[in-house]
Amino acid sequence: MRHFLTTEDWGQDELQAVLDRARALKAGASSSALEGKSVALVFFNPSLRTRTSFEIGIAQLGGRGIVLDARSGTWPMEFEPGAVMDGDAEEHVIEAARVLSRYVDMIAIRCFPKFENWEAEREDPLITAFSRHASVPIVNMETIVHPCQELAMMMALQEKLGDVKDKTFLLTWVPHPRPLNTAVANSAILMASKFGLNVRMLVPDEVYRLDERYMSAAAENCAAHGASFDLTTDVEAAYRGADMVYAKSWGALPFYGQWDGEAPYRAKGSGFMVDEAKMSMTNNAVVSHCLPMRRNVKIADNVVDSPAFLGIEEAENRLHVQKAMLEALARDSETI
Amino acid sequence: MRHFLTTEDWGQDELQAVLDRARALKAGASSSALEGKSVALVFFNPSLRTRTSFEIGIAQLGGRGIVLDARSGTWPMEFEPGAVMDGDAEEHVIEAARVLSRYVDMIAIRCFPKFENWEAEREDPLITAFSRHASVPIVNMETIVHPCQELAMMMALQEKLGDVKDKTFLLTWVPHPRPLNTAVANSAILMASKFGLNVRMLVPDEVYRLDERYMSAAAENCAAHGASFDLTTDVEAAYRGADMVYAKSWGALPFYGQWDGEAPYRAKGSGFMVDEAKMSMTNNAVVSHCLPMRRNVKIADNVVDSPAFLGIEEAENRLHVQKAMLEALARDSETI
Amino acid sequence: MRHFLTTEDWGQDELQAVLDRARALKAGASSSALEGKSVALVFFNPSLRTRTSFEIGIAQLGGRGIVLDARSGTWPMEFEPGAVMDGDAEEHVIEAARVLSRYVDMIAIRCFPKFENWEAEREDPLITAFSRHASVPIVNMETIVHPCQELAMMMALQEKLGDVKDKTFLLTWVPHPRPLNTAVANSAILMASKFGLNVRMLVPDEVYRLDERYMSAAAENCAAHGASFDLTTDVEAAYRGADMVYAKSWGALPFYGQWDGEAPYRAKGSGFMVDEAKMSMTNNAVVSHCLPMRRNVKIADNVVDSPAFLGIEEAENRLHVQKAMLEALARDSETI
């Protein structure tokens, strides 16, 4: 039995097999991999695309998705072993994971970090605890990484560019009114580096470095492919010759949960919106962003509405890559 | 491809065809018009009947409904073109509509007006924007009109009265603790007038006129049928000889969003509850109200519990007319 | 047509037949008892297991469950006959029950008491009103009793102990930060007594007696079986020789809704957590608790994690007993 918690646990070949299968599914292949099976979709945070694409994808595989809204529909959950549960939590993840494992054949979880304590939250404690106590496969629907989005992005990139090896991938920080989760940024560099692209990160300041876990993993992936991995604050150096621009905003980890001190660094990126002038410096790059996306704050309307924008295709691909991944997990699982 | 945003866009013959099909479905006809298809049901406001009847109706047609609770389950949405999205909205309806169109085969939307600015809200901006950017049919589950309720009402009326032409339809304002959306009132006069009934509106004061868009449309419909269209504040004149009494409460548009000034006008209607004394003035009329309905505030118990009350039948008909309308849209749509 | 509101309305033989069928279903028997049917699942309170197990169970029987979140997804409801509805409630249960009966084939309801007025709430007014006005079977998903949990508990007990007659069942009050609903405690003594176990209740003080309706019913059930029924505040007397320990916390009815005065009595039970020392006094007893359950507050980790703990099995059994009960109701119902 295997989980899909992070692409760090999966080889490039394995992920490429999932992508290839996703392309076949997008082209119309049918599958009954989940015939008569159920998947719990547990949401600790809101969702539009994830929920819809999982629920429909599961149904298209012959199964049924049960959406559990863990913000309001269920009880607060404890995940520390040995906790004396005299606080808010009415239930331990041990029981939740065991019981759900009796009812369903897979459990997918969305649980964003709480912006309280990065040292604890960088361990992704809730989904990790679920994976320890469940007896069915666990799928990550976004925690501190967003591996389904990674697959969808890579699928869109391969659809457009074919072989992506040796192309140049730019992850650019973009403005947003609030500091956000680093999950999609972590995921973008994990995936681009795993597939052999040269990876550049453009940030307003060094404080926007991602967690060392992901910086190191990406650097090692790039090195293994003979590709480069760079972090820069120089807009022109970053955009020059890029083949793909991936936009994302995130909060600087040194100010995690106490964001007031971040304001001056954030101000340095006020001109970082993706626009036509910046895109003109690239190698005729494609551009994308996971959705939701603030128009004219992160990316200018005329870039979003141009043929270079892959965001809608990437969003559609969520459906196909998730179906392919659920198929793969069902095949590998003794419980299915 | 065609949307069902308002009955204003549909001819009487087309709507009658939907009603005829609904009657066949109610009598037991089966249909697999949505076999293997999905419909997103997007709710910006609460629902009991609408949600249940859509979800079950879609399933009975062989499809699957995905309920998206847009109050809490998804992101706030922008719908102005060109907006610089630095406020609350995380997502533009352009992306939401395009992406949902990749996942599902139809999108149904409930979005009540916000009681902030009638000049803007009378354009029904959210559902209109969705219909512009989606590539699948859009269905109105109540915005500033409630066209599914119109169909259900007309079906109940035809079941009871047969040919409704030249009958007299009274829309009476009734008390309620708060000012409400005008959607069902707008819809009642649109539908009754389209089917050739004489239409009377009984209101406590002229300030309760509905928006001119609907007053004019109803007056023109009536004129085209040689039927009468009247607004009155005289209870006896309104009820005398009526064949159907439709009860509904709504807020007066001149006080839209600043309701304090409405109180003295509202007080004039304190005796407007539908009761046996008023019903005795009619031509043995039937009576109805969309649900939910406050008993003994809008309609007295002994009228609700009498055989003249069509409200339960009308509510059941929601299931049948919606199935018939979804069938019609699926037939007309290239995407289905 | 028959409802499942409380096990008080069902004989031991009838319940045993449901349990026997549940065991067959757990062993793999299939059923299409709800083929093409729909069940409304109406939740006035949160749920993890109940919702998931009902939704999956209904699907496994060939039907479809429609989850209605009555806390936020629908309108507040009135249930007093003749009420002048000028308060918060927009809808009377009469209309809700009648309309849902037109759409679905069964209605399951969760509605906890409000902790306002036990004299009124002990009549279980909402589900009772639903059962009066609906024309389809009503199923209790927990109100002031929790009959599905009773069946699941008895099934787990019979799986472990075989014939339970003449065994000794201890319901022990356990600590919890807040006063809780008495439903599961009421249910535990109803069910254990109906199946002929000797029933002991361990409470910190006499003020934790359950409502006389349930105390009398349990005492009568025990008497009919020649079994004993005791309430004690003596921990050792309670545990000594017990075959099953069932843990549950609840609020003392004399302080219902005005809990401040309960604190000194609650303090007397501060040592009532189920732990190894207490378990060592039993007749090698099994132990259980409905979920959710606070570890190390209600039951110590080393008891929960021991083979004596039946809580996960009991939770799984919810799926099987509910399927068996829905089958039985469908068989008895003219509407199905």
Briefly characterize the structure.
Chain A is of the alpha/beta class and 336 residues long.
Question: Can you walk through the features of this model?
Answer:
The structure is a homotrimer of 336-residue chains. Helix content of chain A is 39%, strand content 14%. The first copy, chain A, is of the alpha/beta class and 336 residues long. Chain A folds into 2 domains: 7-145 and 318-332, 3-Layer(aba) Sandwich (Rossmann fold), CATH 3.40.50; 149-314, 3-Layer(aba) Sandwich (Rossmann fold), CATH 3.40.50. A 5-stranded parallel beta sheet of chain A has the order 9-8-7-10-11. In chain A, helix 1 (12-26) packs across helix 6, helix 1 crosses helix 13 (311-332) and helix 6 (147-161) packs across helix 7. The longest helix of chain A is centred in the last third of the chain and has 22 residues, at 311-332. The model of chain A has no long low-confidence stretch (mean pLDDT 95). Chains in contact: A-B, A-C, B-C. The A-B interface holds A 43, 46-49, 51-53, 55-56, 59, 69, 71-72, 177, 291-297, 301, 311-312, 315-316, 319 and B 38, 40, 64, 66, 68, 72-75, 78, 82-87, 89-92, 94-96, 98-100, 102-104.
Name the features.
homotrimer; 336 residues; alpha/beta; Rossmann fold; five-stranded parallel beta sheet; four-stranded parallel beta sheet; 11 strands
